[in-house]
Predict the 3D structure of the following.
Amino acid sequence: MKQLNIGIVGAGRIGNVHAQSITYHIPQAKVLRVTDVKVEAAKALAEKYGIPAWSADYMDIINDPEIDAVLVCSPTPTHADIAIAAMQAGKHVFCEKPVDLTIEKILKTQQVAEETGRKLQIGFNRRFDHNHGKVQRLAREGKLGNIELIKITSRDPEPPSPEYAASSGGLYIDMMIHDFDMAMFLAGCDVTEVYAMGTSLVDKRIGEAGDVDTAIVTLTFENGALGVIDNSRRAAYGYDQRVEAFGSLGMAAGENDGDSTVRLSTAEGVLSDKPQFFFLERYMASFIEEMRQFIDAVQNDTEVPVGIHAGLMSVVLAKAAKKSLDEHRPVKISEIL
Amino acid sequence: MKQLNIGIVGAGRIGNVHAQSITYHIPQAKVLRVTDVKVEAAKALAEKYGIPAWSADYMDIINDPEIDAVLVCSPTPTHADIAIAAMQAGKHVFCEKPVDLTIEKILKTQQVAEETGRKLQIGFNRRFDHNHGKVQRLAREGKLGNIELIKITSRDPEPPSPEYAASSGGLYIDMMIHDFDMAMFLAGCDVTEVYAMGTSLVDKRIGEAGDVDTAIVTLTFENGALGVIDNSRRAAYGYDQRVEAFGSLGMAAGENDGDSTVRLSTAEGVLSDKPQFFFLERYMASFIEEMRQFIDAVQNDTEVPVGIHAGLMSVVLAKAAKKSLDEHRPVKISEIL
Amino acid sequence: MKQLNIGIVGAGRIGNVHAQSITYHIPQAKVLRVTDVKVEAAKALAEKYGIPAWSADYMDIINDPEIDAVLVCSPTPTHADIAIAAMQAGKHVFCEKPVDLTIEKILKTQQVAEETGRKLQIGFNRRFDHNHGKVQRLAREGKLGNIELIKITSRDPEPPSPEYAASSGGLYIDMMIHDFDMAMFLAGCDVTEVYAMGTSLVDKRIGEAGDVDTAIVTLTFENGALGVIDNSRRAAYGYDQRVEAFGSLGMAAGENDGDSTVRLSTAEGVLSDKPQFFFLERYMASFIEEMRQFIDAVQNDTEVPVGIHAGLMSVVLAKAAKKSLDEHRPVKISEIL
Amino acid sequence: MKQLNIGIVGAGRIGNVHAQSITYHIPQAKVLRVTDVKVEAAKALAEKYGIPAWSADYMDIINDPEIDAVLVCSPTPTHADIAIAAMQAGKHVFCEKPVDLTIEKILKTQQVAEETGRKLQIGFNRRFDHNHGKVQRLAREGKLGNIELIKITSRDPEPPSPEYAASSGGLYIDMMIHDFDMAMFLAGCDVTEVYAMGTSLVDKRIGEAGDVDTAIVTLTFENGALGVIDNSRRAAYGYDQRVEAFGSLGMAAGENDGDSTVRLSTAEGVLSDKPQFFFLERYMASFIEEMRQFIDAVQNDTEVPVGIHAGLMSVVLAKAAKKSLDEHRPVKISEIL
């Protein structure tokens, strides 16, 4: 099979993750160029992974006829424009989430993907997690019967700075977006209504900046099932990532991963490992797997595992949640989209 | 210490539970009489536990000067009247939940308790559970820091008949009332607002009878914490009873109890015990403990561990939840009480 | 069914346990008399459980025509003589372990049981434990295929005094005797050879007294399976009681019981409960169950669940282990019996 | 830091594992050549990992002045000769286990390592496992107090062919050698005596070929602690790899790793993942880590983490175990070495 040539736009943390996945785990692909407006970041990433070219302008990737696919890892406001330009130049696109903060641009991106027939995968890596993915497979295989309840807990180990919280678009779109996607992934259908609670208990400066750091959002799914997500920006014991699906035949639920299975039993009690610290530790295998599946889909011309609909609905739910919080009432998805 | 003499009103399932607890586990108390409008049920219970007297009329207990305390285990609509009559006759009262389906009668019961100075304990046995009780103790001891999130899962193994569901007052007051009390017990304060979702996924006849069998209710606590309860009338794997308290310093969470800790590892996987089947198996020790503490409180003239405020607030929350479901909006507790 | 009348010889710890089981959990039996050479101990036990008679001389039980069955809970050297006298007087016998420290007396006891046709049950309560018993049932039901390996861990929370260790007959007969019986119970057959290691690491005075406090004994079973038992007189984290059976189709293994299933997750890690402290907490349900089954066997004239063969073989194995340790070589059971 | 150039002798399964580790996980090293007497295997491995040169003769590696270190992954009987030749040519050596089947050659290899001052690391990868390694660290940090008992369970998912068993040198040297090393690693000292039991329960043809497939070996350590290892060539539920260290202050014990933490609760029970299938899945991270530490030790001129003493003692214990089995008695290490 012909090697797939890749360009990476954005040399930040997630750009590094994907460069590492491709370099060390996906022999059938090769990164030819990385770009970043901070050109020294592009250079550092390129040197770290032996990528032959780097520059500041993402058009260097889009104009390169050798490059087959583009990974859009730049700041959110630039995602849609770059993805659209890349697809219009004939390239397949892997786009980080959220696709955009506006519904309009996401729909435009969707339209270009349909017109050009290019692959467009959205970076919801948690779908590829060994735990969450297994819960979903058990649900899809019918082991749980009809799905009736979905529960997701997602708590970060440490809060961001209040400045970050203020500029991030808020918890629902910055953090819970992953959980919105996971909820629909597990339920196997879209959400029709949300009710959002949110408050600032972790760092009052986050509240002063207009955001929440502790939140519970309930969901109604198209198939009649109910769901609930809880988020906190700070868990003293580490990154808490658990999902549960409950149906007429039973329940599938995952526990956190620790660094080991060892238990230390002493006069104080039985001590086990905390959850792995944060997403780079916890989800590294899922980042590799989403990239592997993206490259497979391009090379074999099959459907991408996470399409633009997921990118759209997750943002729609985040907006509905924010509206629900602001107006203190349940909000139907049809009010947003 | 002088033996405490007890009368039991109501020879149904819970009357039997308390008779058994006192007979076999609390040597310092003795049941002198049991009454039930179905006198043969009273007789059967009396014979089973060696109780010397039985009859149909609960006034036989209230008028018996030998009896120090009355356990009110009759149908809900009679709870308040019997409790009030007993206290006015100078007896201490242990009253099953819900105290009454009306706020007015609960407040009246509260008033009589205050006027007579009699002990009045409400039967929220789950507070005495080894798992839930430990979560609460860790919270009260400060091990979790400031409480920020409370999560409760409570699912019955099998649904009741649609007839029962229709006559029970509905899931929120019949089933979730335990969880409302547990939530406030764990948070250490009252709830100020609820938002209720509910649907009928387990047995559509329950829905046709005007009730729900699958529900999620979110809570806002006085201290600013958030909470969520999920209920189902049917869990294929048994009685699912888990609570979780999350705070600034960490989380305490209980798992279900199985009949053994044995794991069977075969080519099919690693198989563990299901949760214990239902409340008689799962909560028997808590029934004994609540009765022991009631008798201790009477004998030592100390405060009962679960007072009438708990009885009141649990019903208030159930009513607020029903109103929230009906009006499809969050409901403040101040709208009810 | 006619009530079974019982006499208890020995008002020590285990006599109390059985009195409690019968009084509170087995309505079809009643303790009529307890005796102890320390008559005040007999009196205290009798008063605690409402037993109508007590005295110093066990012949008061044996000569009482009202008494159907005798529980032999006196010091080990008196077990066999009392059991024999009781059976010869027509009474059924429940005898604590070890039956005797000599093979001869155990064989004599066996002979009297056969001659008189009286029930004779030996007090290996751990067979009735919810965890160990489940492992055995899975083995007997064929879920594990052919049994190939048996592993038993048994560690006490705190060491006995060196004086006790010296007078107890040593670890193999005082402590590991339970594990020898459990091993044969799980394997479903007798042992043919043992190899014993033992040392004094916990308290060197135990070693100076001629005993060991840390031991590993390997076993060869009649069916060709292999086994291993490890014992320690002190586990800092509590009473460690785990068994594992491994066969051609899989493994069944039990974990310790804690007082709750709650896990406390903090920055220090995830803390669970220690094993329950000691045998009164851990094995109380099994003491009740062995007594219930003894009384059932007497009342229904069925076979007792733990016969004298178990009493014999456990002592034989203990003697073989001691010989193995002394002679530093594997010892065949045929050298002992 | 200068890149470390590596030659791999032997293109079998373990040669592939190390080539993969270096290529994908250790940027500071590079494999320059792989050799195998089956040259097509060398070629296949080279092409798979982009290794520039391959050939049949390991002298091509030893004579290549560009190569700094040699990985000896050839059949056991050739290990010592190749390791010696490589060290004498000035190269550092990573040698798979067992170093040799004779004590003499291992001692000779040790002598050459000392004379040449070259690094010589032995391939006991399990020391680098996240679970076993953590147990050892807790022991070394003093969290367990004085070590008193070591327990190791090691069971393969499927038996080898009887032919393999016959030619492998037998279970003790082929399979239990890892556990002998692990035992001494956990105890922190050497073993002074072993007693071996072994039988053929899995496949009688293994017994007919003169080997055992089910074994228990007990150990006495220099520090007075006791130990036990159990092995089976077949576990229906997968690769069972558990270690436990017990001391005066407590116990550290690891559980198996499954592919996920998900539990499926249904009417049949609660089903968890089996242990990961076999050593490539279970121990891949440890293979990477041992190689990383070898390369670090060479580049920084520090001590290798697993020296020749471990290679020697593991073979000595295997020989002692075989002698113990044959002579049916405990065997002192001083009888072997």
Summary: The longest strand of chain B covers residues 147-155. Chain B has a mean pLDDT of 97. Chain B touches chain D at residues 235-238, 240, 258, 263, 265-275 (CB under 8 Å). Residues 35 and 60 of chain B are 8 Å apart (CA to CA).
